[in-house]
Amino acid sequence: MLTRGKRSAPPEGGWREVAVRVLRRPSAAVSCLVLVLAALGAVLAGVAAPYDPAYQDMSAVFAPPGWEHLLGTDNLGRDTFSRLLYGARTSLVVGVGSQVLVVAIGIPVGAVAGWFGGRTDEVLMRLVDVVYAFPDLLLTILLRTVFGGSIGMLVVAIGLAEWTTLARLTRAQVLALRRREYVVGAGAIGARWHEVLWRHVLPNGLGPIVVAAVFGVPRAIFAEAALSYIGIGVQPPTASWGSMVQDGYQAMLRAPHLLLAPALAISAVTLAFTLLVDALRDAVDPRLRPPR
Amino acid sequence: MVRFLARRLVWFAITLLGVSLITFVLMHAVPGGPWDADRPLPPAIIEALNQRYGLDLPGWQQYLKFVVGAAQGDLGVSFVLRQGQPVTEVIGQGLPATLLLAVGAALLATVVGLALGVGAALARGSALDTLTTVVVMLGASVPNFVLGVVLVLVLAVNLKLAPTFGWGQPQQVVLPLLTLAALPTAYVARIARAAALDALTEDYVRTARGKGLSERAVTLRHVLRNVLIPVVTVMGPITAYLATGSFVVESLYAIPGSGRLFIQAVLARDYGLIMGASLLFAAIVATANLVVDLLYAAIDPRLRTPG
């Protein structure tokens, strides 16, 4: 990721201003809508799904879209629409959950390395470099092999593989901010390092970090979907858009909608995130502030 | 420069060591043993197998054996898929296909990405600029396997333009190549455009134009040089992407490459193969990053001053 922020304080007006700026862009506004829909689908899957996603109705295999089954059924008679909703849940839980882990590991590591410098910094950054040296999907696959294929374990596997960029970013932010007067002043009046970091440094450096964390969500969604597509992600009968794409691909000639539905879902969500992140990045960049 | 090189090489070796340690630890942390795959084996056979593959030695000894062997090019043997065959041989069988795809995708991405990016910067607001934006958006967001399956559906099935799977004939390279190259193309185009836009506003471009250089010479001599630097830098992460992308794309198009072999090893729980292949892939990516760093130092004259 190329960060441009040399001055990285959030704009005057705080995060509300950021939100307004983001939503002013039509592409970002639409993206937010798409994501809200996806999130609603994920959260309300339990009530909104007409069928149990794992329920196999062998008498209605490959049913075409219709009133009984909004998007038809797959090769095992499972309702596609329901699986799509539960798949949204899988994707979003893995996507957001893994980023929570990324933030929980990356920010402390980066902050401590940037703050203390010296030996600590060297050691921590070497660790970051080694983990970073793994192509991320490779490390995720290795971790998943150890931890197993439940959604929770997938969150852990992806999170453990992807925290390094955020750590580096946090470290850069801390390095940039630690000589500011208010930081030095806080230390001078006796605040301890973790208080200074928590109260003064991090809140002011948060912009690019938030952008990076949000950017990590579609990457995590992609990782889960790709793994499930290959067959080493979530295990059936858990619904996942990735495995739905695989199933749909097998049945492509008979029922192309089985392929197109999850493909469109994944594309829409990842595209929405990308557009949102672009808008967020611009909204947080102080150099793009309109003159007052 | 020599000091930079030496430090970089030392760091390269340490990284590989760290990668091997993590891989080793992970593979041995898997619950159950490598022989648990399908049917429970009688303990006598398990013991014999362990002895045969050196798995009865204490952990640190196994690790040392592995590292010493790896330094000499021996990455262990496959336990399940091709019992007893050295990992290097097994993976090696798939390398021609994987390299063809990966190198092809890298070249395609660089050429097309540069053309689109620089072209869009030179012709701001034109159709090319919009096209580039769209390509960047889609290429960077749509997951590669989704793009792949849709391509297969549209091009091969409906329009019958290109073969959908298999390997051995030239036209079977087309779809996998396009699928794999999509994301790198988008990245290169985006970075090339940003760098070209930056370069075009620089003073040296105005100077060059003031000297009377044709627009084409300006582009080639000054803009391109400065666009190449960030593009070269991004080749590192792109190599990492090509390595992992090969897993997905080869599985999708049933291409007998190293990526697909690796996935098969994971599915078959062939830990010997998984471990050796992981180290190999990570080593390739680390080497690519090393080369990129060196190239970067070579291209950017500012870095050559002693420091």
Describe this protein's structure.
The complex is a heterodimer of chains A (292) and B (307). Chain A is built from twelve helices and no strands. With 292 residues, chain A is mainly alpha-helical. The model of chain A is unreliable at 1-8 (pLDDT under 50). Chain B has eleven helices and no strands. Classes of the chains: A mainly alpha (292), B mainly alpha (307). At the A-B interface, helix 5, helix 6, helix 10, helix 11 and helix 12 of A face helix 1, helix 5, helix 6, helix 9 and helix 10 of B.
- Residues in helix, % of chain A: over 70%
Strand portion of chain A, in percent? Answer: under 5%
Mean pLDDT of chain B comes to 82
Number of DSSP helical runs of chain B: 11
Overall mean pLDDT score of chain A?
84
Oligomeric grouping of the chains: heterodimer
**What can be said about the biggest beta sheet of chain A?**
none
In brief:
By secondary structure, chain A is mainly α. Chain A contains twelve helices and no strands. Chain A has helices at 14-24, 26-43, 45-48, 80-116, 118-133, 136-147, 151-162, 164-177, 181-188, 193-230, 241-250, 257-284.
Topology:
The complex is a heterodimer of chains A (292) and B (307).
Chain A: H1 14-24, H2 26-43, H3 45-48, H4 80-116, H5 118-133, H6 136-147, H7 151-162, H8 164-177, H9 181-188, H10 193-230, H11 241-250, H12 257-284
Helix pairs in contact in A: 1-12, 2-4, 2-12, 4-5, 4-7, 4-8, 4-10, 5-8, 6-7, 7-10, 8-10, 9-10, 10-11, 10-12, 11-12
Chain B: H1 2-29, H2 43-52, H3 59-71, H4 87-122, H5 127-141, H6 144-158, H7 174-200, H8 203-211, H9 215-253, H10 258-268, H11 271-299
